[in-house]
Amino acid sequence: MNFIFLTTVLSIPCLSGTLEEGREALRQGDYSRAVVLLDRAVDENPGLKEAYILAAKAHSEIGDWIGAAEILERASERFQDPAMYAQLGAVYLQAGDYERAIPPLERAVRAYPFDPDYKKVLGTAYFNSGVVAYRKDDIELAEERFRRAVELLPGDVRPLHNLAALLLKEGKADSALIFVEEALKISPEDPNLLRLQAAAYRQKEDFDGLLRVYRKLYNLQPDSVQVGLDLAMLYRYHRRTKEALALYDTLMVRFPKERKVFDAAAGYYRDHFRYDKVREVYGKFLRAVPGDRLALRRIAESYEAEGRWKEAQRIYKDMLRSHPEDPELLALLAEACRMGGDWEGTVEALKGLVRTQQDDKRAWLGLGEAYRRLGMFDDALRAYHEASLRDTLWGEPWIRIAEIYEQRGKREEAMGAYRRAMDAGTADPLPYHRLAGYALERGDTVKFYEYERRAVIKAIRAVAQTEGAIRSGLKRIEMDRAKMRKLSDMARLAKRYGGILRECLDVLSTDPKFEEFLEDLLHRYPGAKALWEYKGKYEVSKGNLREALDAFRRLVRLDPSYKPGHRGMAEVLERMGRTRDAIAAYERLLQVDPNDEEPYRALIKLCKEEGTLSDLISKWKREMEFHPERALLQKYLTIAIREVER
Question: Mean pLDDT throughout 607-628?
């Protein structure tokens, strides 16, 4: 901001002496000389107001705001003149010292409350002070300053905008909207204000208001790809599918090379399992961007989602013609061949992969698995040995080697391979379980119990680790194909480890001290769901229903989303004759998994016995209003109605 209010005093009458020389130097632009002369003039003429003003002007011209402020402070004390206060405030404002600018400017405004210039400068000081406070995270002071700026600058959107943004940060969406709407009266087509309004509606979860704002934004900024995509997503939220799809079509025509437009449109169709439309969308993109790698991959993935592995393989093979040694494409082709049961194709792809990525231990492991599926056991063993050489602390290849030896009836070699896996430090319980079996065959009960107990502990830890990894993965809202496959693999591992755990415990259950061993395990691993599930089923098998119910309750407390816990509780309660409690347990099971048919059947049976089938039908009808997509709910609602009619 320029130094203000001084131009009016430069036309003062002709002066004599030092003051006149200083004024002349100031007029001619010789500011350094003017500073010296006018400072002397102030000392020589302490009662002359013009001397102070001219001296302050000279200091301001050379950027010496501190010197100008000192002179004006002296003048303000001497003359008590509102113009001097205004001058002083303006100097501090120009120097960036907004807090010190405010008091003299307030005094000037109090003296001349209707002067718009004074109010404007004071409002600017408050606004800038608020900005500084906000940057320092002094939210309380920033809000106070912005509110005062709003009062003093009625036609300025800046303080309204900043105050609204600050209130929004504090979670006060309703208050923020008041100031945004005031700003929009001044500047109704300001995109920044509209975005702020949208943020307030989003914070309030007012998606109707959010849609209105984005429609305005899109009309103002039709060339903004992101605004168009956000508007399409809001249409989707409001189930205005036709408008969303029409907007996607418009954006694809207008921005034929903008990938995120096509990703968004394809994402809609993918969410609705319309994979033919996914391929159509990416086909349009490929016409504008031929050979685009990611688009081709998305098309291949759409085929994979439909289980059309040959079509996916064809795309990967076409891409490999241009990039024959691309490790990513070779891995994708190998996976597509594996999932499609084309083990020969898997072998060829993985052979290409290990040629380029010789240290990829998992590629060698996969190659061994493919050879094994083809019955080429010697080749499989060589591949597994190559995998083991890539990581000497990895036991998985030795487990696979041991399984091949077992298939061939080579017990001693298998036992040696299992021991190699254990020496490598494997977390897999299988080697311990197998060695326990071999020990039992030889009559070595000491080794049998030692290995089997270690297998149980390994299985408990392995299940816990894989389940923890699954939970961590599920926390991610968005996952690419590789992460989803990894999550699926972990789920299979958790199931496998759980199966081994149950098998080990079943073997040990013949031991007279088994119950003591099981209780010790539960004490050592109180968070092991698989153990509590086994405990519940074990007690049921013994007829101890109360103890079984306690175990399943503990399981549900550990993980309210764990289906076996709710199912176990419901079945035990039903066996105990506690029908109402069993009904509640089956209803909780349905909340966890509405696609499980067993609780539907059980609820119809139990409610019929209780005479509450009509109440169940009313409840299911209400649920159908909110979840019309649930086919099983519709199916069993129809069955329940037929039961009542009978």
Answer: 88
35, pLDDT greater than 70: yes
From residue 262, give the alpha-carbon distance in Å to each of 279, 299, 581: 11, 12, 51
Distance in angstroms (rounded) separating the CA atoms of residues 140 and 615: 55
Q: What are phi and psi of 393, to 5 degrees?
A: -105, 25
Q: Please tell me the predicted confidence (pLDDT) of residue 5.
A: 41
Cα gap 384→413, rounded to integer Å: 15
Take residue 135 and report the two structure tokens written for it.
């940057």
User: Using one digit for the tens of pLDDT, what is the confidence trace for 54-64?
Assistant: 888 888 888 88
Residue keyed to tokens 């958790």: 494
Residue 356's Cβ-side half-sphere holds a number of Cα atoms within 13 Å equal to 14
The dihedral region occupied by 112, where left means phi > 0, alpha psi between -120 and 50, and beta the remainder, is beta
Tell me phi and psi for residue 29, to 5 degrees. Answer: 85, 10
Q: Helix (H, G, I), strand (E, B), or coil: what is residue 287?
A: helix
Which secondary-structure segment (H or E) carries 594? none
DSSP states along 228-246: HHHHHHHHHHTT-HHHHHH
Residue that has been written with the tokens 């688009």 in this structure: 295
Per DSSP, 14 falls in state: P
Using alpha carbons, list the distances in angstroms from residue 155 to 4, 67, 118, 127, 162.
Answer: 21, 34, 15, 13, 14
pTM check: above 0.85: no
Structure tokens at 607: 């409610």
How far is it, in rounded angstroms, from Cα 391 to Cα 244?
51
pLDDT in tens, 223-253: 999 999 999 999 999 989 999 999 999 999 9
**Cβ neighbours of 270 (radius 10 Å):** 18
What is the distance between the alpha carbons of residues 157 and 181, in angstroms, rounded to a whole number?
A: 10
Alpha-carbon distance 254 to 51, whole Å? 66
Q: How many angstroms separate the CA atoms of 60 and 496, rounded?
A: 81
Residue 73 neighbours by CB under 8 Å, 6+ apart: 88
For 115-137, the pLDDT digits (tens) are: 888 899 999 999 999 999 999 98
pLDDT tens-digit readout, 239-294 = 899 999 999 999 999 999 999 999 999 999 998 899 999 999 999 999 999 999 99
Residue with tokens 């013994």, as numbered in its chain = 542
**Of the candidates 303, 307, 317, the residue with the CA atom closest to the CA atom of residue 345:** 317
Two structure tokens written together for 520: 């010790």
Q: Which of the pair, 150 or 64, is modelled with greater confidence?
A: 150
Please, what is the average pLDDT of the chain? 88
Yes or no: say if 399 and 390 are a contact pair by the CB < 8 Å rule: no
- Asked if pLDDT for residue 366 goes beyond 50, the answer is yes
Buried/exposed code over 155-176 (b: 16+ C-beta within 10 A; e: otherwise): ebbbbbbbbbbbbbeeebbebb
Q: Are 194 and 211 in contact (CB under 8 A)?
A: no
With a CB cutoff of 8 Å and minimum separation 6, the contacts of 593 are: 563
Query: Shortest CA distance to 294 belongs to which of 260, 269, 324, 321?
Result: 260
